[in-house]
């Protein structure tokens, strides 16, 4: 007869929540009752833990066992509670003394042989433990690198349950967290590799400076994909809070192993158009996982060959593009993942993708259907539209001056971002980029631009060629153009360029 409890961590979205795991072993008919809103995986924990205990040389109490996870209202899923359940059972059944597990947060899945297996989401779980002033945790060896990112918490690893309990009792070695490697060298592609395409490069720079969504339209082989891959390195490096958040998202998606360090560079996600809805926006059966949309948080989501994407996928992007958050609805709860991305789109001008418009073989109907996919509510959220032309031979053969490299452009972007952040902070909006400033703020004093500057935009709004959303978005763009030029306010030329970029042609 006995009772024990231990603190574990459950994840909801990217946030860790403390969960108390308690066990009561009592005389009576041998059976196990697991309560506290467990999902199917958690139900299987019972069978895994039973085998793990027996195969580690412990015995399974043939008594009445009650295991409860608190708070009941918190949805719990996944196999990361295995270790907590095993330890709490060992104490409740008198096989381990209670002080051994005192103040320890166990995170890990158990194999049937008692081996400790890594689980996704260890970083946000440990962050939650640290915030609650818990001092020590144990994880699987495969999670130690990730655990090393959280300071202020003692973390140990152990390969299996037997050695873990020996280690806790001071009768064996535990594995320490490894030293963090220095950040790997930057091998991101450089803008200097792209010949010509000055208009597109200019748009890339403005996009990076203000966080404006961008669309490249052009025939095959002119450098659209090349340019897209060169956008993230123009964005500022992630600050501590963003780096933790972005890394936590990748951790929950089970993509930490590949990186094994805190992500400091703006992420880049280029999902294929055939990718499933959960792979793109998040969700899936079982534990909800972040999709490409959230993996690109604080970075770039690139949809190459946009018209090939399914309509429902495109529609699902609309709301998160405005709010920066994706809500995934589940029967038990709504799971939220951060999704503040810079959207970059690319497409050919028509389905046959002829190099020159004159060579196009598409029927008028096919062209019309294709064009229709390039319109609509998603496109209204794209501020920069660029049409690319094939690069001339003399440019490709290097007869023109060498293009600027990414470092030079990134420096201008960084100065522009700093100017914008300082301005909007002084206005009480926080350190946001221009793309995130509320329309009402732009239209009110002291930020409202005079009609001498707004002229073209006013005329286009009146004549219906700009939507109300477009009108605000053009102004945000003009602020970014002014920030890049080091002007403290946009002038009429900045606004003119903004309108041209918004409409994708000269006005
Ligand atoms: N402007 C350019 N400067 C240098 N190389 C280029 C340029 N445009 C294309 N290339 C070369 O052509 C290849 C294809 O370019 P990229 O994949 O970016 O074209 P794309 O516009 O995305 O074409 P598609 O519509 O077929 O996807 C590049 O890998 C590069 O070698
Ligand atoms: Mg391409
Ligand atoms: Zn065509």
UniProtKB/TrEMBL annotation:
Gene3D superfamilies: 3.30.230.10, P-loop containing nucleotide triphosphate hydrolases
Molecular function, one GO term: ATP binding
Boundaries of every AAA+ ATPase domain copy: 210-392
Family statement: Belongs to the Mg-chelatase subunits D/I family. ComM subfamily.
Record NCBIfam families: YifB family Mg chelatase-like AAA ATPase (TIGR00368)
Protein name per the record: Magnesium chelatase family protein
Annotated organism of origin: Phytomonospora endophytica
